[in-house]
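TA notes. Do not distribute before section.
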Amino acid sequence: MVRKRALPFDPIDEASRQWGRRWGAVEQMRAVTSLMRAQQIVINELDDILRKHGLTFARFEALVLLTFSRRGSLPLGKMGERLQVHPTSVTSIVRRLEAAGLVRRERSARDERSVEIRLTDEGTALRAQALQVPRRIVSATSFDLEGIRALKGQLDTLTAALDEAALEEQRP
């Protein structure tokens, strides 16, 4: 993993000190900030590795998603839903994958108004290479399988709580 030079201080510790002087709730702020910092580091590492394959993480996710499809293709709208991105973003992702020869657009056999996205042979081959990327990221951590499962469990709990809070806000 390639890392930029470390700061001479821990930015989360410094932010915690400043936060505590003004607002309190320091541990909650530290947890959220640490989560966001870890997420940014992982995305940067993934992007650095995937760049060698001509991919970004978003394009990698789209290639993997197409692999999970029973028919080997998905409607453009369904891809956006499953990737949880705005329709404009999924269109941009597909356009770039298509320009690279990794996917192609096809009219749906079931609904001619719908466009389906299908992996090309080149896309399938690249996806197979790129699937090694998550393993490389995880192997760079000191987590054993039990630690990885525990982390995932905590993240699942957090995600469920955030989803529930969002639903509560939408209720009248």
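Switch to the second chain here.
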Amino acid sequence: MSYSQILNVARQVEQVVVGKTLQIRLSLACLLAGGHLLIEDLPGVGKTTLAHALAKSLGLQFNRVQFTSDLLPADLIGVSIYQRDSASFVFHPGPLFTQVLLADEINRATPKTQSGLLEAMEERQASVDGRAHPLPHPFFVIATQNPSHHVGAFPLPESQLDRFLMCISLGYPDPAAERALLLGEDRRRMLQQLPTVMTPQELLAAQEELRKIHVAPSLAEYVMALCHWSRQEGHFAEGLSPRAGLALLQAARAWAALEARDHVLPEDVQAVLTPVAAHRLRPLKAGAGAALSSRDLVQLMLKSVAP
């Protein structure tokens, strides 16, 4: 089983989003696992560029929607319009009907509009006027959000966060990467010129191959132990759900594939645990863990649970 094409995608995206090798590999693992990706960071660090570069390199149809406080669910999903000639309503699909939807600054939209994505992310369909309309296959949501303390942000509810397989942050570039960015070619022009490295059909085939990657019973026990620790140690308001455990295992399979292995190791679980788990967990407001973020507590969980 060869995932060399996925690695070629990673190398191409690294030419556009410089100095972010780990984040790019995590993003590709997320898409390979069939999940949705949330990128949380400050404006201007390359979140949108990363999403666009991934879609172009994978040959996926791409729509970008700028989420604002006045965006309505119909603006995203589409509307049924009455046609006098046929005396019937005809559905006109919105930008949601694409293979990659970039939901830019998703937490600037109201909860009502945010909830319009829930069915699409979970069921890969959108319901309008009692009729379900299937979305293209594959279908991914890559959402960006500003930190919650920014003006005009509506925090995503737990049910929405749980639909994202991973949440990553890019952060500021290191000096070498920033120098290359300042002196290099314009990123918009680079995006326009990016060739397709992998077709959607090849991506779907790679996702099917992912099911063949072996997971030993002891590895499944390790994932269970991590989930149980999150529920029982009293650091979080709620622990990881069974769906989170399944997501962690699927992401670990994808990471193993990127490492050219046909079986999952504990190191694969550890590599993806923070981006898979941290956004699903809320530290308790009182107690010993109050001063620690969810990412800090996930690192504590890694140290506390032996493989």
